[in-house]
Amino acid sequence: MIKMLSVKGVSSGYGKLLAIHDVDINVKKGEVVVLIGANGAGKSTLLRTISGVLRPSKGQIIFQGRKINGYKPHSIVKMGVVQIQEGRGILARMTVKENLEMGAYLRSDKGAIEKDLVQTFEKFPHLKDRLSQNAGTLSGGEQQMLAIGRSLMARPQLLLMDEPSLGLAPVIVEFILETIHDLREKDEYTILLVEQNANQALDVADRGYVLETGRIVIEGKSQELRDNEKVQRAYLGKTIRSREN
Amino acid sequence: MIFQQLINGLMLGANYSLVAIGYTLIFGVLGLLHFAHGEVLMAGAFMGFYIILWTDLPLYITLPLTMIATGALGIIIDLLAIRPLRKDFHLAPLLSTIGVTIILQNLAVKLFGGYGTRFPDAIKDYHFKIGSLFISSINILTLGISIFLMIALYFFISKTKIGKAMRAVSESHLTAGLLGVNVDWIVLLTFGIASALAGASGVMIGLAFHAISPFIGLTFALKGLVVMLLGGLGNVLGAMIGGLILGMAEVLAIVVLPTEINLQDIFSFGIMILILIFRPTGLFGTRITQG
Description:
By secondary structure, chain A is α/β, with parallel strands linked by helices.
């Protein structure tokens, strides 16, 4: 498979305070890759560094053969890397329709944008009923649907999702993860996903990396991570009793 | 009499609105109170003055030229005085804009003298007599131009792609950037638009009051602030309506209240204090619930 994104030896953080150290990750075309880790492990920092919000103090980020670190977020969006922020990043004072239109901000192919809007409503019928409503009035789950729908309006080549299930009811978390699964299976999107909800994230991901205090400590296929004792204990909530038996 | 005063009040108020819209746009995208905004208006008045004096161009060319020039001035202010400080301690840009105020005002005193200058009559002033009313054609014209500019701006920010990007930037620089919006460019554009409106207002104030001085900036800057608070911070529609309300209220205050002392300003700032106490979100402001 074609390598889409590679992060090589990246250290990054806020000012002089580094939150990730010498991180190496790869994402191939068509894959869903998950970053697992506790609060403060540096997962969001890594996503923000890829999307250009933060500048790495060391290392390189290569997207489709091109070095992208050092570019501003809007230029990186133009190259096809679109991030869904943690906390969804909805424009609360703009309508649902305007939010979706902003997703296609860098596109000028009006006809295709209209078609993509229709597709978005097929995926998220809830949004269609609320088009002229201010996005701030939507429920958390609807806002997450809007955030995903909006990011797809940019026709991203690589989608970065920062904790899409954060603060949502279990039934909605399930819907969101199903959506991610469909995005990969039906629409062939490539997704780099950050999740605290490791169990469900590994269900939809092909591979994963475990971050601990800013470093990658374990990496492997989803099944390998599931079988890893350390992952089970720390992130999947399983005790190691099975071994003692 | 009252009706005649209302027209004057609307004309004055429309100029307050134009200043307040500039404040509110800049406050929206940067969360910054741009103190030098009134001086941009003053600069616009003098630019209009010299364009008319030297070139004798008609108003419909003078006005856009002034708007372009003050728009450029606003962009230069952002580039030189605000952008380099933006990432620092957040009061730094505010203090910097006060510095710009001092520089522009003193520059104007040095260049044009510290006294009032008669503004040339760029257009002939007709007085219509309707019944017992005298209505000045200049007042009607400036009111018309102001309202046209406001409607154009409202259309721009609510319907066009770049206008929507401005609103997105005013909600969150981070989100706008991640949607592909070049935030720095939108901030520059906002300074340009806000300053162009202030420049237009400067020319119209010159036309309507027939006199300008290097110190007219402060009065309109303060009134613009009152209007911004009246309309709600960052609320463009609020600033438009708030300006018209304040202009009419001031003129009516002159008619109704005794005139020995300057009650007009006491009245305006009294309104501001009442708004801050009882409706700090402004007349048209709403609490924003974070999603």
